[in-house]
Amino acid sequence: MSEIKIAHHLQHERAAADRTLFGLWMYIMTDLLMFAVLFAVYAVLQNSTAGGPHGHDIFSLNFVMIETLLLLTSSLTCGLASLSAKNKDKKQLFIWLVATFLLGAMFLSLEVWEFSKLVNEGHTVSTSAFLSSYFALVGNHGLHILAGLIWIIVSSIFIRKRGLTHHMQRKINAFSMFWHFLDIVWIFIFTLVYLRAFI
Amino acid sequence: MKELLLGKLDKNALPHEWFTIGGSVTFILMFLAVVAFITYKKRWRWLWDEWLTSVDPKKIGIMYFIVGGFMLLRGALDAVMIWLQQSLSAGSSHGYLSADHFQQIFTAHGNIMVFFVAMAFIFGLINYIVPLQIGARDLASPFLNTLGFWLFVAGVVMVNMFFFLGGEYAATGWLAVAPLSGTQFSPGVGVDYWLWSLQISGIGTTLGAINFIVTILKMRAPGMSLKKMPLFTWGSLCSMVMAVTVFPLLTATLFLLFLDRHFGSHFFTTDLGGNAMMYTNLVWMWGHPEVYILMLPAFGVYSEIVSTFTRKKIASYASNVIGMIGVSAFALLVWLHHFFTMGSGADINAFFGLMTMVIAVPTTMLFINWLVTMYRSKILFKTPMLWFLGFVGTFSFGGMTGVILAMPPADFQLHNSLFLVAHFHTMTIGGVLFGALAGISYWFPKMTGLRLNERIGRYAYWCWVSGFALAFVPLYILGLMGATRRLDHYESSTGWQPFFIVALLGGILIMVAIVLQVVQVIATIIQRKQLAVSGDPWNGRTLEWSTAPVPPAYNFAVIPEVTGSDAYWDIKQQASKKVVYEDILMPRNTASGIYISAFAFLTGFAFVWHINWLAIVSIIGIIAVIVSRNFDENTEYVLSAKEVEKIETERNKEFASKQHDIKKYEDADMGLIEFIRVVLNWALKTVRLKK
Fold first, then answer.
1. How many domains does chain A have?
2. Most exposed among A170, B22, B135, B302, judged by the fewest C-beta atoms under 10 Å?
3. Which residue, among A12, A33, A143, would best test binding to B if mutated, counting the most B CBs under 10 Å from its CB?
4. What ipTM, to 2 d.p.?
């Protein structure tokens, strides 16, 4: 390839990366709007307990605090992962990806445990409108975390196979944006769902 | 065991009523005919490689038109069935439909016309024209575009699936208001089919909208600032921005309704704290802007047409853009006018009533702009311009009835009456459908290299406009007389029957118009030698006209430089430059969109019938295809400058041989009698040959 062609190619790559990033921001906005609906629905229905339990009867703040800390720490490790991807440090990248995965997985298992505990106590999705909206909002966030975890596994496999190419760096960047977005949503869930139940 | 394998599916689900048997048999016969034809012509490979897996937005645009056109026939048939029932079913006669079947028909009619006809036409136009207008070779993500299209197709299949399995569609009205759409009042699978067809095609719309926003904002030709962007692209941008804003709301709302129906939650139920009114709010927050998502690209089409056929720059580009942005901004703030009667209180009703009336201001800006452009110009009255003029009449009239409905006190009288039905049909037919038809006839030469037969086109146009008036003016009157919408039977003493019969006649006239349009296309194909045109038959002003008809896959061999809002007009005034070709990166065809949509369809189908294993398998399938596509790095190939040059020279040569004196054939268009003669001759000849 001549030098002009390489320059041309790089320009094309950069433009494509720029578009992907912009598209990702747009996607995150649409996802945020879906969460907005779930938050609004929760706000409307949180007192419609139909004789069933209220939030402060069934939530444990300490437990949720641990969940929150796990997820916030995972945001830190995720940031470190994207930094090491930028520095092309593959070993470091794997360490931080694994850390993010473990923290995310722990968060998710705690959430699953909390859900199953509630269900075992008889507080299910069909108990009351309040619990329906609680399970929908928090569960939807959990599903997003699950998608993030799958994303980590798949990216890691492909990085092992193909090395840390431009393409892969972009994927890690995109993942990191997605993960931080989930973190921000969780902060709102923590505040508006859990903290608010005790005020 | 059987329940584990097949869920709720059993032999009762098979077609056993006249309409499901008729529907399935028709669909199967049509399907077999198409399969037989393609096999006979040995075109499977070609179909798969050139069309189905194509990532070329021009081909995807054409496929949208084909599916949309087909669904238009399906929806129009529903409409005629509704009209027929209403004109028969007075007094002691109960018509030919049961009440339940009648409800399913008007629900399906609404869904099909909005989601699978209007959306299809609008997305088809945007796909074909926007990249050409902004001087781009492709979309930001060609893959997302095919995915969006195939998700739309999955929605189309889902909406017709009840013919084969289940035998009932939703009987709830096109938005399936709660609590009627809950399991308590709609225990069958109809609402589930409704839900999943909207959910799947809605997700496709969101993805498509993201793609087009990125394309329009990031991929314009050098020199084309936002202030120089063609007006159809502006309309599309406004529309797509609204789509990404409200379609997620629909997705979330449908998700909640799904939880209600499938997992027994209580969002929209009447018991255990559920709030059915919240459903109405959420769904209209999407539903009202949806109408404008369809309308804004149509506004763009009209702007282009007025400017081209008056051979003038649009009077005020700025006010046209401001008008479109204004309409889309206000459109997000008026949803509550759909349910003034729900009792939100005087203050809230007043606010939404005022906002609704305010929307008339930016709309009027657009209208004044178009009329001022036409003032004192020598107008070419070709069919696209006729559609525009038809739109001006019907849409202004419909807009005024809209202002009447926007007043809460008046709305309390007119809510859910046929007056409302007439109003929104005036807006959607007069605005959106006329816009789509105007756009198709305007850009048809670009898409096929042929201009549509003008003469039969004019017949079709006049049948449409007069049929429309005949069909819907009686409904306004009936509405004022107190007839509510969705009536399957009424007393003869009301004196409504004559009006309903007139409306039916109007409906038949509209069907004649649709048939004439099909004839128009066939006549154009018959006369393809005389009707062949250059790349710029209307003396156009925007970049799409600078390409040869049926532009090559890469659109532009050389990306144009833009200096003004009428880019091609400016280029035409300058001397032509020498062309230097360059390598072009082209996206490879992909079938991933088809696979993902097939799995999405199966997921929906599994949830409709509670087949859990199929749902799990399909979701895993979706994830697997997404992963394999996402990490596929071999998605593009290079078309070298030499190859581009070769293609261009060949195309130019072929094109020059086809081109002839267009003036000579200006009035060559065959009329109806000529058409019938030609068809009969052809039929006789084939029969004789067989003998």
1. 1
2. B22
3. A33
4. 0.95
